[in-house]
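F.,

This is the one I mentioned.
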């Protein structure tokens, strides 16, 4: 992509109405545009990163048998009344249609997926299965804050599983837990992310959150370093030792919730009367689980963790481009290098703009691609380009003919 044609402009000044680093950096670097409190549009660079995060999620959820669907964003009032959440879910955006019916924008989708599953479940042979979507969610937060970490409109991957018995749900729940850790490992969050015991509400004694350590985090967790798990502060009074080993030496830290999983049991299958016939022909209630990850919140979390005083430092797997190619008044040679890299399948952002070297370098650091390639009169004299890792202090000269092998 030629930067002269890219639909962004970087901004030098900090956004006046943003206090979180992720929002400040993403707006300044041209990844997102703020429409209102907790409402952001994704520009080309931001969309590329978001799509890569979603690709990682899809690959790992598909690997445990998840099948992707897309449900409606508009949920009829009757569905919410069936589950009993029309009056109790205080974050719903409610609206009335011209058909004299009331609706809410989808804040979560148990009220749609449960009756959907019912249409395809008749006997135990139809179970188990898992279906998921990646879709925009809407929550009427009283105070949207922290940039992408707490929004009124955000992207969510929500997976729902349907089972004949508790043992089957438990097995799937364990598989989903392992898949989540693979996802966070690939996204560069693995070492800092803890399976965290949290309140289960009416679903079960405990639910589990995936909490990533960050100074910008809103949650306090208590970590067992022996087991690499944690307990959310909200339940520490009843669970003040490690649930696995009984360790009492738990350390407190701040974290961002990037995912959560629940054993729903029959919480939603009962009101929607989702049943199946077992091998003896007797009707039984379907047991469910749900598993959420917020790709947009993950994006904001990564920015909170991976940055320096110059800008964002993207992990390579989700960076908008692998290479930021910069021409210092040597566009003819840079153009050839750009075309060769693109033909080899390398993702390249090519800064062909008529700007000073300082402005180009500053933008490259702000945008944060993993590698910066500089083509200048000096490098060409050595038949080379300068290559610099985004997190390194200095670059090195690499012969142009050896560049493709170097970047593999």
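My design for it:
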């Amino acid at each position: 992509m030629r930067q002269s044609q890219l639909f962004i402009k970087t901004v030098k000044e900090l956004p006046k109405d943003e206090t979180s680093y992720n929002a400040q950096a993403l707006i300044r670097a041209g990844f997102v545009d703020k429409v209102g409190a907790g409402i952001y549009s994704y520009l080309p660079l931001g969309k590329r990163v978001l799509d890569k995060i979603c690709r990682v999620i899809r690959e790992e959820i598909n690997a445990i048998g998840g099948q992707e669907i897309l449900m409606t964003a508009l949920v009829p009032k009757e569905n919410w009344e069936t589950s009993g959440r029309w009056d109790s879910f205080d974050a719903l955006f409610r609206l009335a249609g011209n058909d004299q019916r009331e609706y809410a924008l989808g804040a979560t989708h148990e009220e749609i997926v449960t009756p959907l599953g019912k249409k395809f479940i008749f006997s135990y042979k139809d179970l188990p299965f898992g279906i998921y979507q990646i879709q925009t969610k809407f929550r009427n937060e009283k105070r949207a804050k922290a940039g992408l970490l707490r929004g009124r409109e955000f992207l969510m991957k929500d997976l729902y599983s349907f089972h004949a018995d508790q043992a089957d749900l438990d097995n799937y729940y364990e598989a989903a837990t392992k898949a989540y850790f693979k996802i966070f490992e690939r996204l560069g969050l693995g070492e800092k992310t803890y399976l965290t015991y949290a309140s289960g509400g009416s679903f079960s004694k405990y639910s589990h959150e995936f909490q990533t350590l960050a100074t910008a985090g809103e949650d306090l967790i208590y970590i067992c370093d022996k087991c690499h798990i944690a307990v959310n502060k909200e339940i520490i009074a009843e669970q003040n030792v490690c649930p696995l080993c009984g360790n009492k030496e738990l350390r407190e830290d701040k974290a961002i919730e990037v995912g959560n999983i629940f054993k729903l049991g029959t919480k939603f299958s009962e009101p929607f009367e989702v049943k199946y016939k077992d091998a003896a022909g007797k009707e039984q209630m379907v047991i469910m689980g749900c598993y959420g990850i917020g790709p947009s919140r993950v994006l904001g979390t990564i920015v909170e963790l991976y940055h320096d005083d110059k800008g964002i430092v993207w992990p390579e797997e989700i960076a908008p481009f692998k290479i930021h190619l910069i021409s210092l008044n040597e566009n003819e040679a840079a153009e050839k290098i750009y075309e060769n890299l693109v033909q080899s399948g390398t993702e390249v952002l090519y800064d062909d703009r008529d700007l000073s070297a300082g402005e180009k370098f500053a933008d490259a650091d702000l945008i944060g691609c993993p590698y910066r390639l500089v083509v200048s009169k000096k490098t060409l004299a050595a038949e080379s380009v300068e290559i610099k890792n985004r997190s390194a202090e200095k670059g090195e000269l690499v012969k142009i003919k050896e560049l493709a092998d170097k970047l593999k």
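The first strand starts at residue 32 and ends at 36.

Talk soon.
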